[in-house]
């Protein structure tokens, strides 16, 4: 069996566990070593203070002072020193002459020999405290002076050396090792338990993935999110944005990163805000913002049975809606031309039949009247509207109105100079308002739609009015809401977007749009124009 050691394949939780175990082991080992060194240092310091205190006590004893000045101190001091050594638990007490000749020693055979160690500072009235290897081996010792008459500062009549062997000090330190080991074991167990809990939490948070897998996932996901051509928003259950890619920020017109903010704080269009905030399921839902037409899809996001929030995707349909509107206009124009061709054929047949019946004068009069009627509308539109795209639109709408039996009137004095607004916006505004008016007069007794335009006070005012039922006062504010329509719900279908597009185009051009209450409805659009254009057409 071959065991492959591949830490990079481990899950992130396992890597964290191993690293924390190693760190805990190093910390515990370091703490144990530090505690041992501290205990040994404390024991040595304690031993030094102990021998120094014993030495000073012996040196100040009047019995020792008197014996040190006698002619034969050994018989008196040897039993005294051994008695004190046994009582204090020290290893040796040596009382000696100023020249280092021993008067006492634990080994009587060494009495009378020279003391092995340093005595210079003690002879000078100070204290010697050192670790030194003497006749009994390495020891911690203290040497202090014995003053004549016991008075400090007089002459030194003897020296007292007290010591404890270092191996005795070490044995005391060794006695503390089991306690240190027990403390280290408890610390290791606590660290291990904490490490296991952290690893378990990490495994649950990272779904058991390794650090390399997590890094690769983040890199790939980040690349995909920024490269995808659809806007993507992740919103948690509290309505806070968790993720927003570049396309979503562009489509929603967000200047700053929305991550961490609630959708109600982003300043989005009311319908978009409501859709993102309620977290409901949505499919291909159209929303009109100030600059775009967006398609919103939204679904709940779940992971292992947990509800994480919602995932919303946004697609830009602005250009498609504009092209669709233009296509509808072109289709309407084609239908109108087809109808006109059919009507022209009927009129031509009438003229031919009159001629065949020998009524040539009546045929000429009939043909002339029909030509003058159709030419008059064309002349009115071409003379008033300089923008070619709008001219074509109005002629098409006129033909469409004629087919429906609607009186289409271009008001006298109408002026729309070229360049007053982008052609696409003019087509969107006028086309949708005229379509809305044609629908509104469908049931009127004498249906009529009127279109007019004026230049005044640096603005171009465009009006589209009809003699239909009009809008109730309580529905005026709703008229520009996406999805609103005066049609019954079952007949609405994809309606309710045209007026929202009108408001979008007007807002983009910096203008205003309003509608009057019944009778009928008059839609008034005011667009700012350049000063020189207004002056040239005044």
Q: In the CATH hierarchy, what is the superfamily of the largest domain?
A: Histidine kinase-like ATPase, C-terminal domain
Mean pLDDT level:
77
How are the strands of the biggest sheet laid out side by side?
A: 6-5-9-8-7
Residue share in β-strands = 15-25%
Number of structural units classed as domains: 3
Overall 3D geometry?
rod-shaped
Main sheet: strands, sense, barrel? 5 strands, antiparallel
Distance between the termini: 97 Å
Helix and strand content put the structural class at alpha+beta
Low-pLDDT residue spans = 488-495
Please name the defining characteristics of this protein.
about 550 residues; alpha+beta; Beta-Lactamase; five-stranded antiparallel β-sheet; five-stranded mixed β-sheet; rod-shaped; transmembrane; transferase; sCache_3; membrane; phosphoprotein
């Amino acid at each position: 069996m071959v065991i492959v050691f591949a830490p990079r394949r481990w899950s992130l939780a396992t890597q964290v566990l191993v690293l924390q175990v190693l760190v805990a082991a190093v910390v515990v080992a370091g703490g144990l070593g530090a505690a041992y060194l501290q205990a040994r240092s404390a024991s040595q310091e304690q031993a030094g203070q102990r021998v120094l205190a014993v030495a000073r006590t012996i040196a100040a004893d009047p019995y020792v002072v008197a014996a040190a000045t006698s002619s034969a101190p050994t018989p008196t001091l040897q039993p005294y020193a051994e008695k004190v050594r046994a009582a204090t638990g020290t290893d040796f007490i040596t009382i000696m002459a100023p020249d280092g000749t021993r008067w006492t020693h634990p080994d009587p055979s060494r009495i009378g020999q020279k003391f092995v160690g340093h005595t210079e500072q003690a002879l000078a009235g100070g204290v010697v405290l050192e670790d030194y290897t003497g006749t009994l081996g390495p020891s911690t010792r203290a040497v202090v002076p014995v003053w004549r008459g016991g008075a400090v500062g007089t002459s030194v009549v003897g020296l007292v050396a007290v010591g404890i062997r270092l191996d005795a000090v070490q044995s005391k330190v060794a006695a503390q090792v089991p306690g240190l080991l027990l403390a280290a074991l408890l610390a290791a167990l606590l660290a291990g338990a904490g490490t296991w809990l952290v690893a378990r939490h990490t495994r649950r948070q990272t779904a058991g993935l390794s650090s390399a897998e997590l890094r690769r996932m983040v890199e790939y996901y980040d690349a995909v999110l920024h490269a995808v051509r659809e806007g993507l928003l992740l919103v948690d259950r509290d309505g806070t944005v968790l993720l927003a890619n570049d396309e979503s920020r562009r489509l929603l017109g967000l200047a700053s990163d929305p991550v961490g903010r609630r959708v109600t704080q982003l300043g989005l269009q009311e319908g978009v805000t409501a859709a993102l905030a309620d977290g409901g399921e949505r499919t291909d839902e159209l929303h009109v913002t100030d600059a775009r037409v967006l398609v919103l899809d939204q679904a709940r996001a779940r992971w292992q049975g947990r509800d994480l929030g919602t995932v919303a995707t946004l697609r830009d349909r602005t250009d498609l809606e504009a092209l669709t509107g233009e296509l509808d206009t072109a289709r309407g124009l084609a239908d109108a031309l087809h109808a006109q061709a059919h009507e022209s054929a009927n009129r031509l047949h009438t003229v031919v039949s009159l001629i065949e019946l020998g009524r040539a004068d009546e045929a000429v009069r009939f043909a002339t009247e029909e030509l003058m009627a159709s030419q008059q509308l064309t002349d009115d539109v071409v003379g008033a509207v300089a923008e070619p795209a709008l001219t074509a639109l109005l002629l098409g709408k006129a033909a469409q109105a004629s087919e429906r039996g609607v009186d289409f009137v271009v008001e006298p004095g109408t002026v729309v100079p070229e360049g007053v607004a982008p052609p696409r916006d003019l087509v969107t505004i006028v086309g949708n308002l005229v379509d809305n008016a044609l629908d509104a007069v469908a049931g009127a007794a004498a249906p009529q739609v009127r279109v007019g335009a004026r230049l005044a006070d640096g603005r171009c005012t465009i009006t589209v009015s009809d003699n239909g039922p009009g809008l109730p006062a309580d529905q005026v504010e709703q008229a520009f809401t996406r999805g609103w329509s005066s049609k019954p719900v079952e007949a609405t279908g994809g309606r309710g977007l045209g007026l929202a597009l009108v408001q979008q185009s007007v807002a983009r051009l910096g203008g205003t749009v309003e509608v009057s209450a019944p009778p009928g409805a008059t839609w008034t659009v005011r667009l700012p124009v350049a000063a020189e254009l207004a002056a040239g057409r005044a």
